Amino acid sequence: MSKAPAPRPERVLFVHAHPDDETLSSGGTIATLLELGAEVTVLTATRGERGEMLTEALAPLFGDGPRVAAHRETEIAAALAALGGPAHLWLGSGGARPTDLPERRYSDSGMQWGPDGRAIAADDAPADSLTAADLGEVVDDVRAAIRSTGADAVVSYADDGGYGHPDHVRVHHAARYAARAEEVPFSMIVPADSDEVDLTVDVLPVRAKVRAAVEQYRSQVTVDPVDPSDPQRLTWVMPHGVRQEAPAVEAFRHDADPVPPAPQTFAELTRQGKVTAVVVAAVAGLVVGALGTVTHQQRLGGFPVGMVLTTLIVLGLVVGLRLLYRSRAMVTAAGVAIIVATQVLVSVGGASSPLVLANLAGYVWTFAPAVIAAFTLAWPDLSGLRARAAAASASASAEAGAGATASAPASSSDPAASGAPGRRE
């Protein structure tokens, strides 16, 4: 007794700039997807080397990029575990780097506050920073992550990066270009009160997980204690002293849908497209039938060139329709049209019509189109077997990719709150 294979879980790739961004801007959605059985991966571009160190114990690390990076790796690993344990990749490393390129690190570009109160690029961004890297290289790394995870959807910031941080803006562009290149839907994190919200996720049911995750980022935020009168309320203080509150819902705006691929077979056409295709096949059959009826008796130096060419044209039309469009309907339309065109022209000429004579060429033209169409209609459709073989191959590749991902570093991932101005890693 056969059993239909269960559909695989949805795979979602969140692309963020620094550790903590995944939790502050989309932690509720990540936790919710994991509870629903989705396969979630967080891709983090940098390790936030230029972030603050808020506690007295961590203050000596400030300004020491490698030590800050090492500490923030531990924070994001703990935060992701609190959210439910999504997979994690570092941009430029295994699973998020083309296999023909050596691995690399992208460092935090830093930021400064502009005159309008929004983040702008720092004057001293390192040479190996994310914003100094070639955008094409960053896009290729994100594309590698999409492929290695088999992502069905990609999520990142809106085009302003949430509050202008240059790393966030760079991540937006890279993730969006990569998703489009891989023909994967792309969604942007937006404020819940935005006029351009396509999807909202109720994150109150996972509030405890989000709180536990935010509390792991002691170097970046100070989490307020639980309010006994409102235990679901979650607030924290940013390094510049601004208090932020976790929303009850997280909101997203979908990018324009990728241009759908052109239909490749008759079955992929719309109903109107199918009708049009059948009509076009019939018209082509009428034209071939009329020309064949008129020319099939032609000879060149005794050779029956008309009979041979008209038979080859019928063969090319009918077999070509079956191979290109995998459509018996179009083959039937063309075959019937050829026969109808022949009979109509013969009947117009009467019993003494010179168009179809009682000779070899006449018999071939009378019966060959019907025989060719019958054989073409009769052969089996092997596209289902090819599709199953392709699916099996893709499944095997996905399992191999998952194994490679599992062996990659388990530390992890995402960047800053998509909304109000936050700090500055």
Strand content: 5-15%
C-alpha Rg (nearest Å): 32 Å
Q: Specify the overall morphology.
A: elongated
- Major β-sheet, in short? 7 strands, mixed
Mean pLDDT: 84
Spatial arrangement of strands, main beta sheet? 3-2-1-6-7-12-8
Secondary-structure element order, N to C: EHEHEEEHEHEEHEEEEHHHHH
Number of strands: 12
How many helix segments? 10
Give the helix level as a range of percent: 40-55%
Low-confidence stretches: 400-424
Kindly report how far apart the N and C termini lie. 58 Å
Kindly name the structural category: alpha/beta
How would you portray this structure in words?
- It is built from ten helices and twelve strands.
- With 425 residues, it is an alpha/beta fold.
- A hairpin with a 5-residue loop joins strand 10 and strand 11 (243-245).
- Helix 3 crosses helix 4.
- Mean pLDDT is 84; it is low at 400-424.
Briefly characterize the structure.
The protein has 425 residues and is an alpha/beta fold.
What structural keywords apply?
single chain; 425 residues; alpha/beta; 7-stranded mixed beta sheet; 43% helix; 12% strand; elongated; disordered C terminus
Helices, strands, pairings?
Elements (H helix, E strand, L loop, with lengths): L10 E6 L4 H15 L3 E6 L20 H19 L3 E4 L20 E3 L5 E3 L13 H15 L3 E5 L8 H16 L4 E5 L8 E4 L4 H8 L7 E2 L11 E3 L5 E3 L3 E6 L16 H25 L9 H21 L2 H22 L10 H19 L4 H24 L19
Parallel strand pairs: 1-2, 1-6, 2-3, 6-7
Antiparallel strand pairs: 4-5, 7-12, 8-12, 9-10, 10-11
Helix pairs in contact: 1-5, 2-5, 3-4, 6-7, 6-8, 7-8, 7-9, 8-9
